[in-house]
Amino acid sequence: MKNVKRFLRRFLTGLVLCFVLFAAMNVGIFWVCFYKASQAGEGSGSPQYLVRQTAESLSGTEGSGYTLPGGLKNELKKQGVWAMLLDSGGKVVWKMDLPETIPLSYSAAGIAEFSRYYLRDYPVFCWERGGGLMVLGYPKDSYFKYPYDASMQMFSQTLRWVELMFGCNVALLILLYALLSWRTVKPVEPILESIRSLSRGEPVLLQEKGLFSEISAGLNRTSVLLQSRSEALKEKEKARAEWIAGVSHDIRTPLSMILGYAGEMEDDPSLPKPARERCARICAQGVKLRDLVSDLNLVSRLEYSMQPLLRRPVRAAKLLREAVTGFLNGGVDEKFQVEIEPADETVWIDADGRLLERAVTNLLQNSAVHNPAGCRITVSLRAQEKDCLLAVEDDGIGIKPEKLRRLQAAIRSGKGLSRTGEHGLGLRIVGSIARAHGGVFRLSSEPGRGTKAVLILPRSQTPGGAAGPSQ
Amino acid sequence: MAMDDIKAKKILAVDDQKELLELLEEILRKEGYSRVFTAQDCRSARQAAEKIRPDLILLDVMLPDGDGFSLMREIRKSSDVPVIFLTARGEDEDRLVGLGLGADDYVVKPFLPKELALRVGAVLRRAYRPAGREGAPCFTLGRTGVNPDGGFVERGGRRISLTAKELALLLKLYENRNRIVTGDALCEAVWGDGLPGYENTLMVHIRRLREKIEEDPSKPRFLLTVRGLGYKLVTEGSNP
Q1: What count of Cα atoms within 13 Å lies in the side-chain half-sphere of residue A182?
Q2: Residues of A (140-159) whose Cβ lies below 8 Å from B
Q3: Which candidate, A292, A403, B13, B97, has a CA 20 to 30 Å from the CA of A447?
Q4: Is A344 on the interface with B (CB under 8 A)?
Q5: DSSP label at A101?
């Protein structure tokens, strides 16, 4: 709807602008024409001017006779104008080229009748001269004379009517235009909405009719295509995860046999010592293989959401203590100093405790494995308003920037590190576990200064069991 | 309880893989268990359970004609025989924890023979210890003898009695001897509640315990503090 309104507003603004332009143009043209016409009407050649000139230039009196200056006379003759002067009694006392049909004497009523109209079809113009009246007659049909009388009230009312009419017209036009545009633009809205849905990966189904039926049909086809592709992809991913689960399941028995018999032989006192040592190695490698396979399975299950999360409110500080304790109890060389910072005991996470502990343990093991010369490992918990940060930091050899970038990319995308032959499985598990809990995993490092791994997880909003001591 | 009693217990191993059953049998026999029986599917397992009345069942989760979980539910209707599940890490393990089926323990496949033998021994001892006795053994810490049943420690011929909380703490630590026990776990064992709020109480009890078992409580040799985590009872060199 937002878009339609925006379109409509734009169309209407355009329309109003058009009106303003039209009005401006018309006013301009009108003004120019009117000015020209009035110039022409009041210039030196106009009847009004001539009649006044004639009245003022005519010299003499009724007794001595009248004379008109030659120039003016010629001008009048050139235009075919006749002239006459009436005295106060209505009698013609001077005339020039007066046609014969024109009477020589007029009553007051006669004068009043012709003065503003025609005299025997001649358009006439008058000017008062010393109690008399100068009359110029122009050739027939050369001027249109139409005197118009109106009361002031009616005149202003008419103006208002014209304004109202004009206003109504404009309003109706705008309304019609708006309606039309609305009808044109409205079908665009579902199209825009469905494009938005497509961009979010949601399916769309538009009605394929109206002005934009082709676009709608195209969008529908796109949607079907995208859906089928993403479904195929999901199927494929799921199949892969299931395949990995199957393989890791099938590996259990043969690996059990290897570990079982090698373990037996390792403890068999009847075997020579070197043979038993070799069996111990087989066992150690078998255990590695077992862990690897189960890690692989866990990652693939986490990434394809096949791993059921047993989420419960977990106290973050306790979880860290348990992870570190488990790590230390597993037998850690003296060259590694593991420290845990005192942490906020009120931070709870809604988490699968076993998985999360596993993530922290993985980070601890990582620090130990990659720092064969030993290092100090610090575990800390920092609480923020919505999240909490579980950090495992070491002051070891660090990771080279180039490798760090690859590792970070692998954690982000959940893809393996194909180039170096390293799978980065340990870190991927951590990343997957963080994602499964709605959190993120960040890895940073400086060569020579150490590595910092941080799990950022959402805090649970309702602490589960924040009851105080009940001694 | 004599060791021989445990070794004489009847163990039924159920797994669909014949080789694995052979391996299980061999491991258990080597450990001294002489009466080991096997079954390859639910049906024969059910029959065997009826006939032999085993004292412990090792049960695979995936069986050709059913799953271990429902088989256990069925067997549990008529007997309280302890069950150890053989599971794959991942789904089975999670279901096991999630369902709270009351299995006595589980061993993740693939496993080391030592792991399996340890679990089997522990479950059997727990399930068949002589009735009426808590069965906490006496042990020594240096020159201090600890007698949990009597609730006292003995040093230089002098008996010092332990309070119930002190004894519970000491036993929890002894159960996990030479391993770190978190403060949380200790509080849960003694007060049945989490650490927050009990830190100081725990410290007080640990101090009193040290006064009773350590020769120099300010320089403990046995009951060590692991900063930020918890405590550790070191029994190296002393006989459990």
Answers
A1: 8
A2: none
A3: A292
A4: no
A5: T
Q: Do B184 and A298 touch (CB under 8 A)?
A: no
Average pLDDT over residues B100-124: 84
Complex ipTM > 0.90: no
* Residue B180 touches chain A, beta carbons under 8 Å: yes
User: B97 and A470: CB-CB below 8 Å?
Assistant: no
Task: Give pLDDT < 50 ranges for chain A.
Answer: 417-421, 465-471
Nearest CA-CA distance, residue A201 and chain B, Å: 30
Bridge pairing between strands A59-61 and A65-67: antiparallel
Contact between chains at B19 and A257 (C-beta distance less than 8 A): yes
Q: Where are the beta strands (DSSP E) in B48-143?
A: 56-60, 62-63, 66-67, 83-88, 105-109, 139-141
Q: From CA B106, how far away is CA B119, in angstroms rounded?
A: 8
DSSP labels for A314-372? EEHHHHHHHHHHHHHHTT--TTEEEEE----TT-EEEE-HHHHHHHHHHHHHHHHHT-T
- Is residue B98 within 8 angstroms of chain A, CB to CB? yes
Q: Which of A66, A70, A72 is nearest to A50 (CA)?
A: A72
Q: Which of A84, A81, A79 is nearest to A66 (CA)?
A: A84
CA A236, CA A297: separation in Å to the nearest integer?
16
pLDDT at A457: 92
